[in-house]
Design a protein that fits this description.
Two copies of one chain form a homodimer. Chain A is α/β, with parallel strands linked by helices and 354 residues long.
Chain lengths: 354, 354
């Protein structure tokens, strides 16, 4: 397969980790006879510094004409600490999501066997957890009409959804469940919210097309409890923008290894793959950043194009690196193994499996 | 002090646990020379069975003319499993909150030293956690305008707050922080929501009147993570209705002992005190229900009227019962100690401390 991949390294540790993901994709291309063509572009603070824009037109053009985007991270303290800054790196991310129409955010959470001790939860609670969250990313109350009264004493946000917005992500989530453990949990607040009742109606209807998938309903407050009490009960979680924001961030910490979590944001025509960790400016250039989240984002990219065998090879190599403790200090204190050494090991393992 | 207390035992284990709370309040009255006058009334399924209404006028009248309400629990499977039921026990709770104007919900969460092993979180994470959540209870998106389009294809909910609604609960939360560890964390989503920005503006302004309290801001998605990663960082959390629903339920499971969690719902003139656990029908009449949440709700009632020394005595007696393992089987498997034996021990300890 031939794939054109835009690489947007961004700020902080973004470039270091993305470089390892690219290295791993090159190993996959070599082993499986694919052609991956990488083109780099600017985003975030580094883009503001060079062009004045966090998501320049040139970057947008590249993203529009490539098959997928491999994204690093954005954010720089010099903008965070300057309240007068008119342009902020984060705007680049929001603009990209909007312009590329990325309405589905996918966040897998897995308890890595080798890292069970890292979790704030007890080993026996987290062991075996393997879930993925489908969060609607371009609708709901985050994008609804905002009002503030003239006297500034009343403010409101409108949480609105259309059946169409729900349908398109629901199909994606059911399809994901079909190739996983065939369980889908819709998280909403249908006992109170009208928009949640629409979610429930639409998703219940669509479920008829996926008879092999078991559909469950869970109120969001209960979901926030169940994520802690019994995360292994979940397979695919489907939810709206606001609830997805809260539940996916909650879920991200139960595994105890935020440096290992990948994500995908997918639209009709475009798709972006990125680690969930940020630009982590304090670690920049020290070789201590964990590249695994970025590498697993590359695996999600391959899965998106049906290259499941290739993705599985990356997962196997990552597991092996953890097993052999070829790890950065975030998960192995006092480790002297650098970001690029982890990338080298994983790429080498793909080239020459045992 | 003379207090008129309405007792609404409700359904399931409600009557059993409320009886113990009353027993403990009677012990306090005796020891401290107070006069507590108890009057019982119907609520929930038992009220529907006898009057056709989940919150009959007679119960309402009693609540309106008493100083405080001691509430048990409501809910009965015979209504849950009957989709054609026009009247439901839960409506009694909502009607009561609304009619009594209970706009502040208070949910303390404490990691009991004797029960640290019960938590799904690791001991070292939960040890020392002692926080209380102030959730706005009668505003926001749960009560905002709901719309569904004629074709049923679009649905919306309006999340609205006025400065007045925020001010009244903010003062209560700051006052609570003053007599605790003097830290208040406002949980919102001010980077996205207009109503959250109003919360932030109003609370920041009110903070000037409470200079001894440190004010922190936390986005709700980050709060959902921090509650797991480091719950001991929190003292008082202040938040809106929706975020409070999610965060307080999440927080309720970190202590590992839902049978011990009390709550208060407070308005300008009225106040209701109740365990957070439900009616737990399967346990009804077996003597296995844990009465501590109800007993600690009685302690919150006393604190509400400034009877802090009296409340402290209840807390001490509860701690002693846990220490001596005078506990029901939910926290001490194989225990043969009944609901009323736990109540007896706590009441006796108040009468005759060591
Ligand atoms: Mg988030
Ligand atoms: Mg709740």
């Amino acid at each position: 397969m031939k794939l054109n991949i835009a690489v947007l390294p961004g700020d902080g540790i973004g470039p270091e980790v993305t470089k390892q993901a690219k290295k791993v994709l090159e190993a996959v291309a070599h082993q499986f006879n694919h052609t991956f063509i990488f083109k780099e572009a600017l985003v975030g603070a580094v883009a503001i510094d060079k062009t004045g824009e966090p998501f320049p037109q040139e970057t947008m053009d590249l993203c529009l004409k490539t098959d997928a985007v491999l994204f690093g991270a954005i954010g720089d303290p010099k903008y965070d600490n300057d309240p007068s800054a008119k342009v902020r790196p984060e705007q680049g991310l929001l603009k990209m999501r909007k312009d590329l129409g990325l309405f589905t955010n996918i966040r897998p959470v897995k308890a890595f066997e080798q890292l069970l001790d890292k979790s704030p939860l007890k080993k026996e609670i987290i062991k075996g957890a393997d879930l993925t969250i489908y969060r609607e990313l371009t609708g709901g109350i985050y994008f609804g009409e905002k009002k503030i009264s003239k006297d500034g004493k009343t403010a409101s946000d409108l949480g609105e959804y259309s059946a169409y917005e729900i349908e398109r992500i629901a199909h994606a989530a059911f399809k994901a469940a079909q190739v996983r453990r065939k369980k889908l949990t819709l998280v909403d607040k249908a006992n109170v919210l009208e928009s949640s009742r629409l979610w429930r109606k639409v998703v219940t209807e669509i479920a008829k097309e996926y008879k092999d998938v078991e559909l469950h309903y869970l109120f969001v407050d209960n979901a926030a409890m169940q994520m802690i009490l019994n995360p292994t009960q979940f397979d695919v979680i489907l939810t709206d923008n606001l609830f997805g924001d809260i539940i996916s961030d909650e879920a991200s910490v139960i595994g105890g290894s935020i440096g290992l979590l990948a994500s995908a944001s997918i639209g009709e025509k475009h798709a972006v793959f990125e680690p969930i960790h940020g630009s982590y400016p304090q670690a920049t250039g020290k070789g201590i950043a964990n590249p695994i989240a970025s590498i697993l984002s590359a695996a999600m990219l391959l899965e998106h194009f049906g290259l499941n065998e290739e993705a599985a090879v990356i997962h196997k190599a990552v597991d092996k690196s953890l097993e052999l403790k070829i790890s950065t200090p975030d998960i192995l204190p006092d480790s002297k193994i650098t970001t690029s050494k982890v990338g080298d090991f994983i790429a080498d393992y793909i080239h020459y499996p045992e």
